[in-house]
Amino acid sequence: MKTCFDHAMALNKKNIIQSLPANVDKLLDLGCDDGVWTSHLASQSHAQEVVGIDIVQERLEQAHKNGVVAVRADLSGNVPLPSNEFDLIHANQVIEHVPDVDCFASEIFRLLRPCGRAILSTENTSSWHNIFASLFGWQNFSSTNVSEKKLGIGNPWALHRGEQGHLKTWTHKVIFSYCGLKEFCEAHGFRVITIRGAGYYPLPAWFGDLDVRHAHFITVVCEKPGA
């Protein structure tokens, strides 16, 4: 049986698919992992060229097998790709793992063509379940993944609490709120088109798209201004 979290994740991916522009020339997926989701994005947007970036070499090798042009890079630094190159840049559940979010956003802006679109999805520090956790003096759910030593730190209800063997690159650094993510994108020169939500515990996941400010996942769709 699917959990509330699974339903929220599924709806979040549906929101991303519905936000894709049609007939994309070049797609860049930041944090592409094994390339399975990247390939699905490419299929749905009819992308002619698909590039994926990740830092874990083993996952990049899998992405290559799935038809993705795989590039190894640290998303906290300069990406070894040309400026003004991509029509669409996607990053799902990535920005919260990046130590230098200013560099991350600046590189997205640089890599996008004028009028190109970026889709960024992340957890929401102002979701109701995070607010609930803070009221009890717990680490909010989206901030329990802060150490490679142990998962679920500071929250007795956290998923995977107590598990070990987590990669350092998978820990969470910055968790945005609805307004924080919007203003952050605007500060980096993007025009925000829309923000969608998914997950609204314990209610059905679609409530998150009605009250985006308190949804578990928030997905911002923004555009690099044209000439």
General description of the model:
The protein is an alpha/beta fold and 227 residues long. Helix content is 28%, strand content 22%. It has helices at residues 4-18, 36-45, 57-65, 101-111, 128-135, 178-187; strands at residues 26-30, 49-54, 69-72, 86-92, 112-123, 191-198, 217-223. Strands 3-2-1-4-5-7-6 form a seven-stranded mixed sheet, with helices on both faces. Strand 4 (86-92), helix 4 and strand 5 form a beta-alpha-beta unit. The model has no long low-confidence stretch (mean pLDDT 95).
Any descriptors?
227 residues; 7 strands; globular; 6 helices
Strand order of the largest sheet: 3-2-1-4-5-7-6
Estimate what percentage of residues fall within beta strands: 15-25%
The secondary-structure class comes to alpha/beta
| Count of runs of 4 or more consecutive helical residues | 6
Low-confidence stretches: none
Radius of gyration, in Å, reads: 17 Å
Silhouette:
globular
Largest sheet: 7 strands, mixed
How many DSSP E strands?
A: 7
H/E element sequence? HEHEHEEHEHHEE
Helical content (DSSP H or I, runs of 4+): 25-40%
Mean pLDDT: 95
Intertermini distance = 50 Å
Protein topology:
Elements: H1 4-18, E1 26-30, H2 36-45, E2 49-54, H3 57-65, E3 69-72, E4 86-92, H4 101-111, E5 112-123, H5 128-135, H6 178-187, E6 191-198, E7 217-223
Parallel strand pairs: 1-2, 1-4, 2-3, 4-5
Antiparallel strand pairs: 5-7, 6-7
Question: Gist?
Answer:
The chain contains 6 helices and 7 strands; from the N terminus they run H-E-H-E-H-E-E-H-E-H-H-E-E.
